[in-house]
Amino acid sequence: MRKSLLVLLLWAPFATALIPKPSERLDQAAKQAIQHFLLHNRVVDSPQDLDNAPYIVAAQGGRVLGTNGDRIHARGNLDAIQRSYGIFRRGKVYIDPDTQELLGINADDIGTARFLLADNLTTLAVQRVTQEIRPGDRLLRAEPPVALGNLDAAKSASFIEGHIIDIPKGITQIGVLDAVTLNKGRRNGLVEGQLLTVIKAGATVRDTVTGMPTQLPDERAGTLLVFRTYEKLSYALVLSASRSLAVQDRFETAQQAQ
Length: 258
Fold this sequence. Notes:
single chain, 258 residues, mainly beta, Thrombin, subunit H, disordered N terminus, Peptidoglycan-binding protein, signal, Bact_Kbp
């Protein structure tokens, strides 16, 4: 009993050190990574969010495609008070790996446009493009900015666990300052500023003595900071990683791992 208590006391400071203190969570590089990511990535909760959004009819002069600097014409409910709109196209559909529930749809960033005037069609000026604009691309209002300063505040939440389900950058291995998509969101209790611990499943090896397959223990592999939550999904930034992370790695709220 005494030996177990001694081991626990000696291990506690190292276990706590795995989780960044609030003041250590966001340096300038992390803030820039979040801001850049949010400029080019967005999730909508349902197909109807895109299907019912205003859409582009044509570019200036009736041309089919629009590029940077063009004027484009759109149909739908666009507000003159809202001067800037994002241009999006339906992208990857996110399905929960455990329940097969539709969690949301990635809205692929095409660019931004500025409201000019409204008539039978609304005219906008293209300000930024990532690829050619097509008829049918959708216009969405800007999301509220993330209060980066508030992400340093400690957050409390009940125990939550889930999986990394996507790497929006399209890479296969995840490292520090990469953003990932999680299969949990506001409805599950995740909040912006929440710290999560990533846990990689232990490998299965063959016991050379018994010949039986043996599951090695799971390992803590990194720390995530949730910076944008949706109803069923969230975005998180990798703050630390002791090894490469990957889609399907499990996460849990950091309080439980302290």
